Amino acid sequence: xGGLKVDTVYLMENYRSTTNIVKAAQKIIxxxxxxxxxxxxxxxxxxxxxxxxxxGKGPKPRVLACADAEEEASTxxxxxxxxxxxxxxxxGGESTVAIIYRTNAQSRSIEEECVSRNLPYLVRGNAGTxxxxxxxxxxxxxxxxxxxxxxxxxxxxxxxxxxRGIGDVAVGEFLRYCDAADSYxxxxxxxxxxxxxxxxxxEEDGGPPVRPRPTPLDYLLSFSxxxxxxxxxxxxxxxxxxxxxxxxxxxxxxxxxxxxxLSIQMRRxxxxxxxxxxxxxxxxxxxxxxxxxxxxxxxKTSEEFADRWGNVVELLSAAANxxxxxxxxxxxxxxxTGASSxxxxxxxxxxxxxxxxxxxxxxxxxxxxxxxxxxxxxxLMTIHASKGMEFDAVFLVGNEEGTLPTHxxxxxxxxxxxxxxxxxxxxxxxxxxxxxxxxTWRKEVTTFFGxxxxxxxxxxxxxxxxxxxxxxxxxxxKSKTNKGTRTGDTGAASARRSAxxxxxxxKPGRMEMRRGMPKFGPRxxxxxxxxxxxxxxxxxxxxxxxSANRDWTPADRNQVRRREHDRMNGETYLPSANSRQGGAAxxxxxxxxxxxxxxxxxxxxxxxxxxxxxxxxxxxxxxxxGGGSNGAA
Length: 633
Known about the structure:
- The protein is 44% helix and 7% strand.
- It has 23 helices and ten strands.
- It has helices at residues 19-30, 36-49, 69-85, 107-116, 134-147, 152-158, 168-199, 202-205, 216-222, 237-243, 253-273, 278-288, 291-298, 302-319, 342-345, 348-373, 407-412, 417-430, 463-469, 491-498, 554-568, 602-609, 617-625; strands spanning 13-14, 52-53, 62-66, 97-101, 121-123, 378-382, 391-396, 433-442, 445-448, 454-457.
């Protein structure tokens, strides 16, 4: 009836990571902002500071700076192989090592380096290897089909990417038409060879010319040029078209209406293959087929779309490595498409596809080999996929602004939820390490800007690394003179020290040093005057020197000096005409006025023009003769 009592129990002993790793991670998570959420995170960080690592001190985490992504991948793989060679990591399943990154797109350069240096690796998580991801296959299926028009797997994926209403029935009709056209073409070739044999011997002309059989891509391209007279895709012009049956006999009108737009698009893309580089061809495929909108439509969240598009940009970056070798395919010869010619096989596009196929087939072979030889296998994964796991050595890559934390979280602000989440992700990644932790960052990052191509940016080191290398949260520097008020100090001297060092013209206590000027002290009894606001033209409000006077102009300080001098001598300061703005009435003069030759105020000038009251008869007579009406106050 009284309710349940809930107690919070903190598990303060860490049996996974060494002391140096735990302390380094605590510096990252403790470097929060000033918002309520940051303060709550700081409170949790304070609890983490009391955590007791139980595995000893261990080696210190290392921070490595790399020139770009390729050097970063090379540095990480070389360090892993060095640790294996010196016995730090032992094979046979006893030691584990992980390469952790923020986004899936970062795995491409690491995978390529692992393959080139023969380091077995395994990509954890749902994404799989780089070239096995759906968005990468969607982009490459069109390139594979252009390179080899007989690739049926590329055909089946290309006609459905993006969705254009072509179902299994329409695809079946198209494939039946291709088979029938091949049969007619083979019969036409056989009959042409028989006629050539009758008219000439093989010794005279070397036999009849043999033209390559058109591919399914050639048949598709012929749909957008139905007359066939000028279509080079069929390899034989009008004669070849006459030997091929009409597609209307095999493909329904509805399916033909679906294939016709694809035929027009593929014809434009193929014309670019002999003119543009590999990355340029990929970019034209993405723009022509509007694949970016397709990736957006199949993504469930904005984060998933950003991850997919990041993989596509990384694919374009990989293709850019082959741009220096000229156009991706040789010019069209009118003999159909395909990889039958040696020129196409040696083209930049052929080399790019061969390297991609090598990376796709390597992981399965390495897994079987590593199981038999019990070699050390590097685990590649994102930070999200690494939650709940632990490894003897962890390499956290991509620790620069824009990657970890991401551009989006940085744009949200220092105290934003997104940036605090990035800080927690960094903490999670660091605490996956049991003994060895290495953090790397890139000085140069290549970014894709659409039609403008690739541009290189030079980001700063991650703020998380700054917090780690600077020893935690940055503290404001305190002035050596800011130690409070010492015994015997006046108020102005204490305020002058608290204001910190400043230039001579900005020292608020400079008026005390002037010869003949009184020092500021306790205010003498007298009528208190309330100053008007600055917007109504009143004189500056502070009556005692404080650190706020530091921004005053020299004219303001002279005005305060005159006012304080008059007040100490029992006189009242009269504001000038310029200060009576906004309709404020000037205050009435009170007290005793005396002439001050050093004063330059308007009231002093009026006093100098008026004779002072005196008991001397000569002065009284002169005043009466001059008609003066101003007497003593």
